[in-house]
Specification:
four-stranded mixed beta sheet; UDP-N-acetylmuramoyl-L-alanine:D-glutamate ligase; about 30% helix; alpha/beta; 10 helices
Length: about 325
């Protein structure tokens, strides 16, 4: 894994959208019209959500490279990012600021359609200097060629490259070869590997030094240095799952940049992601660091959840199974 600068800043390079959110009894089927609640307009986008989570919930020094239009929606995003204490590198585009149409059902599931707009204007030359940067966080809502160029530049300068492989798509070996930490949900992981088998098998086959699978209400599983680390999900009552994964990614990056070991980073990221599901919206749902601390402090080690998660992922006793507070021993290494 790339040797990163200790306790450096996190730079998020990626997307920002204005979210148009409506709650409805259920997600509409094709051709169906559903009467929902009032329209809410909120700042979002995977990159911006992750930057807010990194700064607000993770407590890391955070900057963001973002492309915005010169329109009425751009200030909403700028104000949200600046309010979280994020240093901005803004590229102005003639295209409209990105937008997302989000329907959230009463059972907290969501369906999202994105109009990328200005997000597609980011080019390789837009990457700012990386002096003092520990980690570069990327997603896939900007041009793939730009993501590859950013990752290669960061790798060449000794900066840790963290890629959230969302939205789901196959990834070229050129990009995977420049990534230190890959974060993907179950669908995204299957798309990347192009294979079946257990989650454990898929994680092992990616070929990136650290691979993390986020598994919703099950928790998360990471494969690193030949061992598996498991973190069961925190028990909360979800209201809206929008940005839960983004919150996880931002807090994981923050924890690692501040010197946390992987299992502790997974613990903090999982707690923050769980809290994000208890509120409506994207950036508006991201908790503050003290709330993350409080949830961790009030939650007992979940042995039953750990065993269920191991079974779900296909991780056996022949591998290292970890959770902060007492990892099982690795019988193979």
């Amino acid at each position: 894994m790339t040797i990163a600068k200790p306790h450096g800043a996190v730079l998020v390079a990626g997307s920002a959208n204005v979210d148009f959110l409506v709650r409805a009894p259920h997600i509409p089927a094709p051709g169906e019209t559903v009467l929902g609640g009032d329209l809410t307009v909120l700042p979002g986008g995977k990159g911006a959500n992750q930057a807010v989570a990194c700064a607000r919930a993770g407590g890391a020094a955070t900057a963001m490279l973002v492309a915005l239009g010169d329109d009425l929606f751009a200030p909403l995003i700028e104000q949200s990012l600046q309010g979280a204490g994020i240093a901005l590198h803004i590229v102005r585009s003639p295209r409209p600021t990105g937008a997302a149409l989000i329907c959230v059902s009463d059972d907290a599931e969501n369906a999202i359609t994105v109009a990328p707009g200005a997000n597609m204007a980011l080019v390789p030359d837009d990457l700012p200097g990386l002096a003092g940067v520990d980690s570069l966080v990327l997603q896939l809502e900007t041009p793939l060629s730009t993501v590859i160029a950013f990752a290669k530049t960061a790798r060449a300068e000794g900066v840790r490259v963290i890629l959230n492989a969302a939205p789901a798509r196959a990834l070229p070996a050129e990009l995977l070869g420049a990534v230190d930490i890959l974060i993907a949900n179950q669908e995204e992981l299957a798309m990347i590997t192009g294979r079946g088998g257990t989650i454990a098998d898929q994680l092992k086959s990616v070929g990136v030094p650290y691979v993390v699978a986020t598994l919703g209400a099950h928790g998360c599983c990471a494969f690193a240095d030949g061992a598996y680390w498991l973190q069961p999900a925190f028990q909360v009552t979800p209201v809206d799952t929008t940005a839960a994964g983004d919150t996880f990614c931002g807090v994981l990056a923050a924890a690692l940049s501040m010197g946390a070991v992987l299992p502790d980073a997974l613990l903090r990221a999982s707690a923050a992601g769980a809290l994000a599901t208890t509120r409506l919206g994207a950036q508006s749902s991201v908790p503050v660091r003290a709330e993350v601390d409080a949830l961790i402090a009030s939650s007992a080690r979940d042995e039953t959840g750990l065993a269920r998660l191991a079974l779900y992922c296909g991780v056996t006793a022949d591998h290292a199974v970890g959770q902060p507070g007492g990892a099982l021993q690795d019988h193979d290494h």
